[in-house]
Design brief:
By secondary structure, this protein is of the alpha/beta class. The chain has 2 domains: 49 residues, Helicase, Ruva Protein, domain 3, CATH 1.10.8; 135 residues, Dna Topoisomerase Vi A Subunit, Chain: A, domain 2 (3-Layer(aba) Sandwich), CATH 3.40.1360.10. 43% of the residues lie in helices and 13% in strands. The chain is built from 8 helices and 7 strands; from the N terminus they run H-H-H-E-E-H-E-H-E-H-E-H-E-H-E. A 5-stranded mixed sheet has the order 4-3-5-6-7. Strands 1-2 form a two-stranded antiparallel ribbon. Helix 1 crosses helix 2. The model has no long low-confidence stretch (mean pLDDT 88).
């Protein structure tokens, strides 16, 4: 059965439905919303999407999202250079920043260990993290991976790897639900978890 929608609109719906969490009905609603934007705003939206794909890369130091060689956090002179918080993704970094409780630096792994998915240490940025810790300037490493099976396994693996360096390794305190996701934790809970972080024994 052929569609009654114009081909250009069908193409937009199809592309929108490829986005995570966007089903066919949501994609259709979004496509019709774009139609109502008018040429100027639609062009601005298209330009913003294109600019993101062309200009956004990764920070040379922490692998957060950045337009320059260093992200805004690594380039900020007043951040505590002696503490690094390891997170799974830039989304988790943003969640922690919203708490206002953490003033150190970050390192983004871009994933967690998951043997069933074929993700081992070589697929993450473990070597880069170890290189960053090698100069002795960092005194504490906060392992803020999600409190689920993969996140805990990743934290334990990193803690064992870092132990010979003499760096203090901590984990955010209880208050985060087991099996949860940092991205969805509220600012108060996440902030308290950072205030009461605990040593990670391995």
């Amino acid at each position: 059965m052929s569609s009654t929608l114009p081909p250009a609109l069908e193409d937009l719906i199809q592309e929108l439905s490829r986005l995570p969490g966007v089903g066919p009905k949501t994609a259709q609603r979004l496509a019709f919303h774009v139609l109502r934007l008018g040429p100027e705003r639609a062009q601005a939206l298209a330009g913003a999407i294109q600019a993101v794909t062309e200009r956004i890369g990764y920070c040379d130091r922490c692998h957060n999202l950045a337009e320059e060689a260093l992200c805004a956090i690594c380039a900020a002179p007043r951040r505590d250079q002696s503490v690094i918080c390891v997170v799974e993704s830039p989304i988790h970094l943003l969640a922690i920043e919203r708490t206002g409780e953490y003033r150190g630096l970050y390192f983004v792994l871009h994933g967690v260990l998951s043997p069933i998915d074929g993700i081992g240490p070589d697929e993450l940025r473990v070597k880069e993290l170890m290189t960053r810790l090698s100069d002795g300037a960092v005194t504490e490493l906060i392992l803020a991976t999600d409190p689920n099976l993969e996140g805990e396994a990743t934290a334990t693996y990193l803690a064992r790897l870092v132990k010979p360096l003499g760096v203090r390794v901590t984990r955010p305190a209880s208050g985060l639900p087991v099996g949860g996701d940092l991205e969805y934790a509220d600012e108060v809970t996440l902030g308290r978890a950072f205030q009461g972080r605990r040593m990670l024994d391995v």
